[in-house]
């Protein structure tokens, strides 16, 4: 088929212009390349259609004052020649001119492996106030194969969500070997990658290094609990490593809970190509004619004022648009996991419900161990999948506990792990074909369990039924902790026709279940837990109100872990529990947990008089401070990785109220806050006063509550929380002095 770009374009765009009245029309007679600028409050991404119809990304960064000048950007660079003319493609294909890492690779119905994508048209529409959507249509001139690129821009937050839709009308199936969500092209002198790695109890360990030429890949092949070793979140500093308040930095994350892949390629021209999407590992996808393959969104934001500003943009965006009930309230709770593990019965729980009330939290959360009869769940070796109350432990069922909670004027929540099955379970015995396993191979377990095959619609119904059944029987159930402890070994479905689709269909199945749950139960709070923080991402957080960062609740460790999560996720979504991990006193543990969504997992009856009094007071203080912790702007003031002090500040949008958390993270002789801590985000012309909260009973604060300081002083000189070896954790309430 001969492709006449100009006449096709002209006809198509004329049609669009006539139908939609769109002003985004390429004038066919115009010889200059078409530039498509996509601007947000501070930033811009500019695409350009070159003379031969290729769509290129010519700019990403700070918005220019004159929108017409994006066209001049490419001319300002004198880098080595681009032999392909496609190095900066907005969505690189493979098998034709491209010589570098592709965003998409296909085998056509006729066996041909080449793909070239040419611009057809684009539209820019307002989705709602502050959100616009750019849609760019690309088509292969040689095959009836199309890709639509979507760029959803959140103007005030400077956030872009980018995804693509792939379809064809070929005579037969097309195999997609790679199918990225986004393909960015950045220019800079140097590129510094901040990435994360981890394991159980060691989530979000940061590493920062300069990217060298070639490809660096961040990925997961774990199927479920996909972030166990590595999450998809990352930062790219341009020119030099950005600090908290200085430098140009891009944050990226894939909105996906399964296998992901992010390729970061510094090409021979010294530019950075970022290609992010579902991991194509073991997943060639057979696409039927007219079937649409929609990729998950790749999310990114950019700041030229350092990592702090970028994270505040992302946190605002999350609360406004993504996180379930991001602007709402959260429930404080008492969890029994570490208090009892699997060893509980009705009378023990009755006591814990009384403790919940005594402590003053909103809800009691019953953890693992309440179910299964043939193979009672008295340890982690059996029973998963058999979601009936264990008759020995709970002869009167969950409903009596929900009632008992009501009698104690607290709410009741429950733990489930509905995607999983124990080999020793009635569920496995009844439905061996529902289990992810390779019949020809020996079963291999992660935490003594296997994963249910969510690609199977019957399994989806079952998993949905676990949640629906609990709510139907117990309409007052107020909270779900959804756990997911195993990764996928022997990825194989007994029912799926094409095993290469398994990883993708698993995730589609999971999201279908979550969608159904949220349709029927739109607001009930749910915690996203995965043996700690093995699954934290913005696809899942559309269905969950909070996540569990780590089973490691040692407060010193948590300062570091929560610190790193805070770059990407707002405090309201971070479930922080006070437990018996670590050697720190209860005050230190509570202060650290208060930096997000507060909960407890301790034996309340073992607390001393002062300890209990402290916790009760802290909870009532927290209830007063939580609006600013949940909705305020977060400023990282002193980085525990760079010194002995950690300080984190939350300031409300009016700059009238704040909370400042300070910790000493070293126990060496004579350590303390030797220097004042410079505050940020205040109004220089306002006056502020400080009050120490969470003061331990029997001790007094050394902070002068009468002193008044200007915002100017506090941001230039700072405030000293007076941390010392005898004051290792200090929480300060800040208020405008009127
Ligand atoms: C792993 C979770 O991270 C813990 O909080 C707890 O719920 C256990 N699973 C229960 O088995």
Could you characterize what this model shows?
A hairpin with a 5-residue loop joins strand 6 (131-139) and strand 7. The radius of gyration is 27 Å and the shape is globular. It is 21% helix and 28% strand. Among the domains are: 2-322, alpha-galactosidase from lactobacil brevis (Beta-galactosidase, Chain A, domain 5); 634-736, Golgi alpha-mannosidase II (Immunoglobulin-like). It has 738 residues and is α+β, with helices and mostly antiparallel strands. Helix 9 packs parallel to helix 10 (586-593). The site of (2R,3S,4R,5S)-2-(hydroxymethyl)piperidine-3,4,5-triol has 12 residues, from loops.
Q: Concise description?
A:
Helices cover 21% and strands 28% of the residues. It has 738 residues and is an alpha+beta fold. Among the domains are: 2-322, Distorted Sandwich (Beta-galactosidase, Chain A, domain 5), CATH 2.70.98; 634-736, Golgi alpha-mannosidase II (Immunoglobulin-like, Sandwich), CATH 2.60.40.1180.
Lay out the secondary structure.
Layout: H1 5-20, E1 34-39, E2 43-49, E3 55-62, E4 104-107, E5 118-128, E6 131-139, E7 145-154, E8 159-168, E9 174-186, E10 191-197, E11 205-210, E12 214-219, E13 234-238, E14 248-254, E15 260-266, E16 272-278, E17 285-287, E18 293-294, E19 298-303, H2 306-322, E20 333-335, H3 337-340, H4 346-359, E21 363-366, H5 397-407, E22 411-416, E23 420-421, H6 426-430, E24 450-451, H7 457-473, E25 477-482, H8 502-520, E26 526-528, E27 546-547, H9 555-566, E28 575-578, H10 586-593, E29 597-600, H11 609-631, E30 633-638, E31 645-651, E32 657-664, E33 687-693, E34 708-710, H12 711-716, E35 729-736
Parallel strand pairs: 20-21, 20-29, 21-22, 22-25, 25-26, 26-27, 28-29
Antiparallel strand pairs: 1-2, 2-3, 4-9, 5-6, 6-7, 7-8, 8-18, 8-19, 9-16, 9-17, 10-11, 10-13, 12-15, 13-14, 14-19, 15-16, 23-24, 30-31, 31-32, 32-35, 33-34, 33-35
Bound molecules: (2R,3S,4R,5S)-2-(hydroxymethyl)piperidine-3,4,5-triol (DGJ).
């Amino acid at each position: 088929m001969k492709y006449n770009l100009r006449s096709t374009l002209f006809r198509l765009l004329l049609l669009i212009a006539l139908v939609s009245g769109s002003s985004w029309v390429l004038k066919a007679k115009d010889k200059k390349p078409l530039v498509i600028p996509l601007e947000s409050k501070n930033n811009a991404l500019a695409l350009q259609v070159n003379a031969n119809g290729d769509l290129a990304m010519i700019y990403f960064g700070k918005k220019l004052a004159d929108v017409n000048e994006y066209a001049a950007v490419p001319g300002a660079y004198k880098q080595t020649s681009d032999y392909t003319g496609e190095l900066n493609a907005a969505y690189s294909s493979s098998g034709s001119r491209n010589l570098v890492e592709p965003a998409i690779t296909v085998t056509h119905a006729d066996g041909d492996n080449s793909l070239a994508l040419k611009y057809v048209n684009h539209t820019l529409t307002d989705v709602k106030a502050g959100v616009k959507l750019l849609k760019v249509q690309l088509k292969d001139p040689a095959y009836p194969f199309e890709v639509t690129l979507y760029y959803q821009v959140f103007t005030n937050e400077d956030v872009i969500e980018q995804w693509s839709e792939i379809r064809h009308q070929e005579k037969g199936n097309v195999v997609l070997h790679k199918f990225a969500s986004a393909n960015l092209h950045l220019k800079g002198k140097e590129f510094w990658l901040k990435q994360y790695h981890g394991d159980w109890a060691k989530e979000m360990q940061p590493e920062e290094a300069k990217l060298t030429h070639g490809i660096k890949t961040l990925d997961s092949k774990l199927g479920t609990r996909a972030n166990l070793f590595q999450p998809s979140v990352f930062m790219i500093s341009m020119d030099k490593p950005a600090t908290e308040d200085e430098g140009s930095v891009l944050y990226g994350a894939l909105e996906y809970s399964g296998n992901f892949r992010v390729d970061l390629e510094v090409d021979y021209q010294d530019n950075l190509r970022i290609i992010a999407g579902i991991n194509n590992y073991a997943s060639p996808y057979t696409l039927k004619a007219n079937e649409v393959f929609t990729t998950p969104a790749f999310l990114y934001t950019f700041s030229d004022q350092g990592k702090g500003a970028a994270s505040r943009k992302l946190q605002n965006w999350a609360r406004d648009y993504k996180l379930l009930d991001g602007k709402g309230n959260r429930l404080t709770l008492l969890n029994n996991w570490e208090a009892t593990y699997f060893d509980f019965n009705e009378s023990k729980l009755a006591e814990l419900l009384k403790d919940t009330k005594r402590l003053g939290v909103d809800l009691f959360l019953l953890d693992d161990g309440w179910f299964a009869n043939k193979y009672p769940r008295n340890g982690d070796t059996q029973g998963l999948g058999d979601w009936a109350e264990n008759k020995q432990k709970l002869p009167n069922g969950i409903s009596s506990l929900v009632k008992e909670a009501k009698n104690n004027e607290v709410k009741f929540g429950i733990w489930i792990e509905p995607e999983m099955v124990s080999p020793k379970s009635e569920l496995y015995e009844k439905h061996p074909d529902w289990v992810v396993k390779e019949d020809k191979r020996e079963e291999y377990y992660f935490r003594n369990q296997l994963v249910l095959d969510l690609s199977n619609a019957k399994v989806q119904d079952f998993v949905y039924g676990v949640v629906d059944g609990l709510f139907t029987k117990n309409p007052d159930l107020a909270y779900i902790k959804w756990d997911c402890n195993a990764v996928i070994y022997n990825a194989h479905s007994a029912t799926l026709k094409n095993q290469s689709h398994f990883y993708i269909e698993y995730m589609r199945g999971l999201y279908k279940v979550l969608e159904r749950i949220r349709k029927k139960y739109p607001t009930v709070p749910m915690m996203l837990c995965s043996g700690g923080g093995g699954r934290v991402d913005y696809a899942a957080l559309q269905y969950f109100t909070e996540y569990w960062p780590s089973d490691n609740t040692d407060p010193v460790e948590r300062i570091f872990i929560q610190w790193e999560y805070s770059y990407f996720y707002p405090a309201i979504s971070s479930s922080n529990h006070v437990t018996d991990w670590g050697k720190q006193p209860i005050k230190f543990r509570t202060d650290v947990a208060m930096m997000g969504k507060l909960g407890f997992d301790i034996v309340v009856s073992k607390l001393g008089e002062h300890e209990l009094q402290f916790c009760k007071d802290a909870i009532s203080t927290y209830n007063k401070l939580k609006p600013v912790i949940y909705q305020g702007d977060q400023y990282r003031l002193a980085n525990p990785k760079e010194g002995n002090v950690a300080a984190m500040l939350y300031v409300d949008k009016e700059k009238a109220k704040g909370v400042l958390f300070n910790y000493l993270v070293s126990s060496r002789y004579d350590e303390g806050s030797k220097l004042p801590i410079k505050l940020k985000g205040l109004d220089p012309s306002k006056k502020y006063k400080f009050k120490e909260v969470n003061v331990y009973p029997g001790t007094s604060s050394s902070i002068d509550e009468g002193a008044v300081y200007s915002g100017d002083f506090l941001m230039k000189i700072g405030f000293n929380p007076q941390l010392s070896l005898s004051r290792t954790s200090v929480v300060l309430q800040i208020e405008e002095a009127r």
